[in-house]
Amino acid sequence: MAAYLPNQDWRLEEGAERGAAAANPNRQPRAEPNVRRQHDRSRSNQRQGRREERRDRPAHWQYACGLCQEDHALSSCQRFLNQSPYQRYETLERRSYCRNCLARSHLAPDCPSLTTCRRCDHRHHTLIHGAPQLDNSLQPPSPPPVLRWNLVMIPTATIRIMGEEARLWASVRALVHQGSAMSKISYASFQRIGLRSFLFLGRRFTTLKIQARNESSTWALRVHALVTDELPYRPYCDPILEDPTRDFSGGSLADVDPRSNTPIEVELGADAYSAIVQEGRTFSGIGDVYGYQTRLGYVLSGPIRNLPQDDPY
Question: Does the reported pTM lie above 0.85?
C-alpha cells in the first residue's frame, strides 16, 4: 500500500494538469525538472564564457582603435602611423581623441597626463609633432588691433523750430539722420516749447516748422515728428581733439560747434532728408571728414583721426 500511494499521487497530479490544460488551451505545459536544470546550466556556462572572454581581451579593448576598429591602441595602428602629422591631427579631431595622450575618454583640455612631446616639450603627442594645426594653439593670442580712427563725425545741425500756431522760435540741436524712417523730437523739448500733438496709429506726433540757425534764411520746412523718450542723447563718447571746422567759416556751418557733446533733441529722418540735402561737398582736411551742403548749412560727416598731441604716429 505504501508503494502504491506515490504512484497514485503522480497520476492525480498528471490528471490535474490535463484538466488545467483543457480549461486553458493557451497555457504552456510545465517543463520537466531535468529540462529546467539543463537550461539553467546552459545560461551559467554562457555567463562563464563571457567572463573568460573579457579576461582574454587586451586592456585597451574599451578604447579600441577608432581608425580600423581592431583591438589595439591608436599609437600601434599601422594606418595611423602611415599618415602625415597633418592627417594624424585631423584623425584625432574627427574621432574625439585626446591630442596629448591619444585616449578617447577625454579631450586635451581635461588631460591628466604630464607627458609632453619628446621633440619640442609642448603639450601634444609626439606622433602629431609638426602638424601645422598646432601652430595656432602654441602661439599666444594676438592682441586686437588698435583702431586709431576711432571717432566718426556725425552730421549735426543747430536749427530753429516752432509749432504751427506759435510765434516764437526755439533753438535745438538736431541730427540729420537719413537712416531713421521718420523725424523725431524729445518729449522734454515737446513740453518745453509747448507744442501740440495728435495721435496716429496709437503714437503721439507733433507738427514742426524748421529753419536754419541763420536768422536771415527764409527757407522753412514743415515736418511731422514722433514724440519720443529716446531723445535726447549725447552724440560722442570721447572728446574730439582734431578740428575739422578750421577751413569753414563760422556762418557756413549748420552746427554752431559740430564737435560739442550738446545733446541731440531732434532727429531729421528720411522723410525730411531729401528736402534738406543739396549737391556739393568740401573736404575738411582732417581724416575722411567732408562737409556736405544742405539747406541748413554744411554738415560734417566721416571718420576723424582722434589722437593725443604727443602720439608719435
Answer: no
